[in-house]
Specification:
One of its GO terms (biological process) is carbohydrate metabolic process. About 25% of the residues lie in helices and about 25% in strands. By secondary structure, it is of the alpha/beta class. It folds into three domains: about 5-175, Chitobiase, domain 2 (2-Layer Sandwich), CATH 3.30.379.10; about 205-510, Glycosidases (TIM Barrel); about 550-690, Jelly Rolls (Sandwich), CATH 2.60.120. It has an eight-stranded parallel β-barrel with strand order 8-9-12-15-16-17-18-20. The model is unreliable at about 1-20 (pLDDT under 50).
Length: about 700
């Protein structure tokens, strides 16, 4: 990854006063470390540091401690800004020296750690810091990995302090998560995401010790005018199933838009990337509701008058759903999958409960996997099996988490009042742009902070103790109710970035349990440093400017030119003058990059497969000056220096077929190519710099 030291300086200036010693004795990090007892001195990190994995158990497991150590080495170079670090090695325990300090990683299966509910966990670790040796010990490779992440964040804090040398306070510590499930869900059914960006999200989430990525991989837009008008309009409503069947599969027609689906090799690679960063991918294929992608393929399976619901009494419905899972179950490495199962017709409760239980038995027999479902209210004389985890998200009568736990169910907290976001816009301002920090740090009854045991901000009887048996943890959710045109893929990241960090803190440490938990002020001070330092990905699209804040400058006229930069994230300013040729005034693009293109026609941005025209027509055979200014919330143009009339790129979102909502768009700068695809004319005085 390349970094913008200009932007980093801005962040560091803002947080310098906040980087004080935390109650643990360490600089604040996210999530906070459970215990640390400081001693004299500090471990000094240098480029010659040796990363040594104890050979006794270092190659056991998949991923092994040695595999994690190899990932850690790459990440450490990024965070420390070192050009090179010696490769990790398998050796017996050793002691460092002043010139060659040692990071020692050991697996000791006799070590024991527990969650708040007393259940054992393999994710805990101990660490000991001396003058020349930093030792991480864990019962399993995953625990060692989280210890390595802790060290990476300690290095990031030291770099941010601006002292020059990288030092970690000496002492001993122990750490383990409060809850088993610490994750996030992304609605990829109603918005397309390629596996490259999904992989980057996994790596970023891992830096905050989140361990699950719930991937909502099938769904449809909800528009009652299309769905329930009685005609065939439902056949045209956007619906998607993202796993790509082989072309010769009987399921091939389930995915009509192959360019918006994941081939097996791409998905397996994404899943492996997540695994080597300690994150399990939990795939969701949502049935029997939210199933328009299936009924558009096989209309005979739809419930009469409700084409987005499956008719569970139709003989071929359940066998078809099972055949879909049979095709894709071999792709999935997780021990659990989600079948969705929310918002079905409440009058068909018996059929619904029978279906959920049948699918649970099927998954166990077919692949040895357990299932999860969204909490829902389907009145029935039957009972959902307690082998099924309930993912609570709302409070219909039958889905009260305290009652579910008392009945022996395992529960994941995804309560929408705390944990829901929606891409770009929230109908009625129900959900915030990113998780509300005031609510997360002081939104529980009595003014305490939120944690996975908090389901209600107003009714304490709906909350549990942190150590409640069966309470597995939390998954926050980002929905994309308004479809592909509402956001770019990167705009979804902008909403998730800080939210993932706060969920990492609250699901690892909780609220009111440990003395070392972060305060809101400590979190807000540490987050910009950790966001900027997060290694292994570049979702911020940071770059190293050529000089000062200038990424590049090309004053001479060009028809086409390649640059060293694929994409530049906001905030940025892109200035240029363009003269289209009258021979082909609307041909080609002005700029193109990894995440976007800017077409000549109507100054149209293209991102995530969607077109967003500005509506300005460039005159032919004369130069027009354009300044594009972008932040993570908007992008606008100043034409011919007229600052009084900026032109904003916008999108128009259909909100439940009730009204249209206009919203601003944010685009990464398309920085890789100037002119192309037959562009006729010239572009001059190009200047791309950081800052809007």
């Amino acid at each position: 990854m390349t970094w913008s030291f200009v932007r980093l300086h801005v962040w560091l200036a803002w947080v310098a006063c906040a980087l004080v010693v935390h109650a643990s004795g360490l600089a604040p990090q996210i999530p906070s470390v459970a215990t640390f007892n400081s001693s004299q001195g500090a471990f000094m990190l240098v480029p010659d540091v040796q990363i040594v994995v104890d050979g006794a158990h270092g190659l056991e497991g998949s991923p092994s401690a040695f595999t994690f150590a190899q990932t850690f080495r790459e990440d450490l170079m990024s965070v420390a800004h070192y050009a090179s670090i010696p490769c990790a090695s398998i050796l017996p325990a050793g002691v460092g020296t002043p010139s060659i300090p040692v990071i020692h990683i050991a697996i000791d299966p006799t070590l024991q750690y527990t969650l708040y509910n007393g259940q054992p966990t393999l994710e805990g670790y101990d660490f000991e810091v001396t003058l020349y040796t930093y030792t991480i010990k864990a019962a399993a490779p995953i625990g060692a990995w989280w210890g390595m992440v802790t060290l990476l964040q300690q290095v990031a804090s030291s770099v941010a302090s601006g002292v020059g040398s990288i030092s970690i306070p000496a002492g001993t510590g122990t750490d383990s998560p409060g809850w088993e499930v610490r994750g996030f869900m992304l609605d990829a059914g109603r918005h397309w995401f390629d596996t490259g960006l999904l992989s980057e999200l996994c790596i970023y989430a891992s830096f905050f010790k989140l361990n699950e990525f719930h991937l909502h991989a099938s769904d449809n837009l909800w528009n009652p005018d299309y769905l329930y008008s009685g005609g065939d309009a439902w056949k045209e409503l956007y619906a998607a199933f993202r796993f790509q069947p082989p072309l010769d599969s009987s399921l091939a027609r389930l995915v009509p838009r192959l360019n918006e689906s994941w081939p097996e090799n791409d998905f397996l690679s994404f899943q492996e990337t997540c695994a080597t960063h300690g994150v399990a991918v939990i795939p969701e294929i949502d049935t029997p509701g939210h199933s328009l992608a299936i009924t558009q393929w096989k209309p005979e399976l739809m419930l009469d008058g409700q084409p987005d619901l499956l008719n569970l009494s139709y003989p071929d419905t359940i066998p078809t759903v099972k055949s879909i899972w049979q095709e894709f179950l071999p792709w999935f490495s997780s021990s659990e999958v989600s079948i969705g199962a929310d918002e079905y017709d409440a009058s068909l409760g018996d059929a619904y409960v029978s279906y959920v239980n049948e699918m649970s038995a099927f998954m166990q027999a077919e692949a040895g996997k357990k299932i999860r479902i969204w909490g829902t209210n389907e009145p029935s004389n039957q009972t959902i099996s307690t082998n099924i985890t309930i993912q609570h998200w709302d409070f219909p009568d039958a889905d009260i988490p305290v009652r579910l736990l008392e009945a022996g169910y395992r529960v994941i907290n995804s309560e929408q009042a705390f944990l829901y976001l929606d891409g770009k816009y929230s109908d009625g301002n129900v959900y915030p742009y990113s998780l509300d920090l005031d609510l997360m740090f002081a939104g529980a009854p009595g003014g305490g902070g939120w944690a996975p045991n908090i389901f209600s901000a107003t009714d304490p009887s709906n909350n549990t103790a942190p150590d409640a048996p069966g309470l597995r943890g939390t998954i926050m959710a980002l929905w994309n109710d308004w479809g592909n045109n509402a956001t770019t893929m990167l705009e979804d990241y902008y909403q998730l970035a800080q939210s993932l960090a706060v969920v990492g803190e609250k699901t690892w440490a909780g609220s009111g349990v440990r003395a070392t938990e972060l305060t809101q002020a400590e979190f807000e001070g540490a987050y910009p440093v950790m966001n900027a330092a997060a290694p292994g990905q570049n979702l911020n699209r940071m770059v190293q400017p050529e000089y000062g804040d200038v990424v590049y400058a090309y004053p001479a006229p060009y028809n086409s030119l390649l640059t060293p930069y694929a994409s530049v994230g906001p905030p940025y300013t892109l200035k240029f003058s363009v003269q289209p040729s009258s021979a082909a005034p609307d041909t080609g693009f002005l700029f193109a990059g990894e995440d976007s293109k800017l077409h000549v026609t109507n100054l149209t941005f293209e991102a995530t497969g969607q077109l967003f025209p500005l509506g300005y027509v460039l005159p032919a055979d004369t130069y027009t000056s354009v300044e594009i200014h972008a932040t993570t919330r908007y992008t606008y143009a100043i034409i011919n220096g007229d600052e009084s009339s900026p032109w904003y790129w916008t999108t128009d979102m259909n909100i439940w077929a009730e009204y249209m909502e206009l919203a601003n768009m944010s685009f990464a700068a398309p920085a890789q190519q100037i002119g192309g695809e037959g562009f006729a004319g010239s572009i001059k005085d190009v200047l791309l710099k950081l800052g809007s």
